[in-house]
Specification:
The complex is a heterodimer.
Chain A (H helix, E strand, L loop, with lengths): L5 E7 L5 H7 L4 H8 E3 L13 E7 L2 E3 H13 E7 L1 H5 L11 H9 L19 E6 L9 E3 L6 H12 L15
Parallel strand pairs in A: 1-2, 1-3, 3-5, 5-7
Antiparallel strand pairs in A: 4-6
Chain B lengths: L5 E4 L2 E4 L6 H7 L23 E4 L2 E4 L10 E3 L3 H17 L14 H8 L16 E2 L5 E4 L8 H9 L5 E4 L6 E4 L26 E3 L18 H4 L16
Parallel strand pairs in B: 1-5
Antiparallel strand pairs in B: 1-2, 3-4, 3-5, 6-7, 7-10, 8-9
The chains are: A alpha/beta, B alpha+beta.
Chain lengths: 180, 246
């Protein structure tokens, strides 16, 4: 009998998918990982509905109403929730818009941008409403672990996931702690 | 004075001379005590509190505590590491430190000390203050978002350059770095890259223009080795990725 697989869900909120690319950078170690884990909702599986999971990995900060909804769903469904990458930890580059009023950001992009035809601020009900500021995950829900980096290297992700899955204390070597 | 004055630091005997602080004596003995506003070339400032140590059971700033015979000093303890980490986290959320978008990332003392004390996340609620960037000077730019009020540029400009270009204005959370001109712009001063003030900033608040990313991310000052081994950014030569002019 093989051990039951650990169920992992991942998602990218206000991020660039760089952290997911870093996850894919595990290369052949992905085969190892696949022996031990099963992917639930994730951009890599395209499963839309989240089920109860052991581990949730979230990339990106919270910039709109949908991000809040998804994050709260992950918190409700995942036993352990991990913030991965600069944006999830401190808002990152998207949070640089916090220097400006949201109205000014929208007008700069959609009304005053160069080469715009029929400029208008998007207002379709399908588009999630933006929050007035971008927030890191821990300002919205309880986060159990943090993994810094932009993105965290595949080695850092590997160290972290291995230590977590084998119930070891989390300790990253110096070269794997980076904010950039 | 007697030559055998010493105190104990984490169980190690550290000799000192009259006038030395716990910090300068430790530094002379090759022992690293994390710090940001301290620079051996300047009088202690005691503002960042990162160098907190326990002296005879009392928490004190190592940079501002005179060394005395028989002191029992604790430096590398879990408790102090946690306090320092908390201070670092507060410094990070108080400003706008977007490391991935900063030219000084990897050669930043704020970042390096945060790595050293094992800070993984900022923990606190971010202030996201709105602060300006001053690019009025032809050779240098000041990004006030990254200033941690260590006053090293203030001290360097006043005490070494004799120009008195910088000052900290306001109190408490209102405290902020200003440029001593009517317009408040660096471009209106005689600030020069040759100034000492241009070589001491521990963060990316004062940057040189027209140069960027000469050393790639991953090969920078603190990318491979910790600050306890590499030393402060102000003491490392520019050609080696630090700020000190050769």
């Amino acid at each position: 009998m093989s051990e039951p697989k650990v169920k992992i869900a991942t998602c990218s909120l206000a991020g660039c998918f760089g952290c997911h690319m870093s996850l894919l950078d595990l290369d052949e170690r992905l085969f190892d990982l696949a022996e031990r884990v099963e992917l639930d909702r994730s951009p890599l599986t395209d499963i839309k509905e989240l089920s109860d999971c052991d581990l949730g990995l979230i990339e990106g900060g919270v910039c709109n109403a949908e991000n809040v909804h998804v994050l709260m769903e992950f918190r409700a469904r995942c036993k352990i929730l991990v913030a991965i990458g600069a944006c999830a930890l401190n808002g990152g580059v998207p949070a640089m818009r916090n220097q400006f009023d949201l109205k000014d950001c929208l007008e700069e992009s959609y009304l005053r941008g160069i080469g715009l035809v029929n400029p208008q601020i998007p207002n379709d009900p399908e588009i999630p409403l933006l929050l007035d500021q971008v927030h890191p995950l821990h300002e919205v829900v309880k986060i159990d672990y943090f993994l810094p980096g932009c993105p965290p290297s595949a080695d850092a992700i590997w160290t972290f996931v291995n230590q977590l899955l084998s119930d070891q204390p989390l300790a990253l070597p110096y070269t794997q702690i980076h904010y950039d | 004075m007697s030559e055998d004055q010493s105190f104990m630091l984490d169980g190690r005997r550290v000799p000192f001379q009259d006038g030395q602080t716990v910090m300068t004596a430790a530094l002379a003995a090759g022992i690293y005590i994390p710090h940001l506003c301290f620079n051996p070339e300047f009088a202690p400032h005691g503002s960042c509190r990162v160098c907190l140590v326990k002296v005879n059971g009392r928490v004190q700033a190592a940079c501002a505590t005179p060394a005395a015979s028989g002191q029992i000093v604790q430096n590398e303890t879990g408790e102090l590491r946690e306090i320092r980490r908390g201070i670092l986290q507060m410094l990070f959320v108080e400003g706008n430190h977007v490391c991935p978008a900063c030219e000084k990332s990897g050669a930043c003392q704020l970042q390096a000390v945060a790595y050293y004390v094992g800070m993984l996340a900022p923990h606190y609620t971010h202030f996201y203050p709105r602060r300006p960037v001053d690019a009025s000077h032809p050779e240098a730019v000041i990004d006030f978002n990254r200033c941690i009020l260590c006053e090293l540029c203030v001290r360097a400009s006043r005490d070494v350059d004799g120009k008195n270009i910088f000052a900290v204005q306001g109190r408490g959370i209102q405290a902020h770095l200003v440029v001593n001109t009517t317009s408040g712009k660096l471009g209106a001063t005689d600030f020069s890259l040759a100034d000492k003030a241009a070589q001491v900033c521990p963060t990316g608040a004062i940057l040189t223009k027209h140069r960027g990313y000469e050393i790639p991310i991953g090969q920078r000052l603190y990318d491979r080795k910790p600050i306890s081994v590499v030393g402060d950014v102000a003491t490392v030569a520019e050609s080696k990725g630090g700020r000190r002019h050769e």
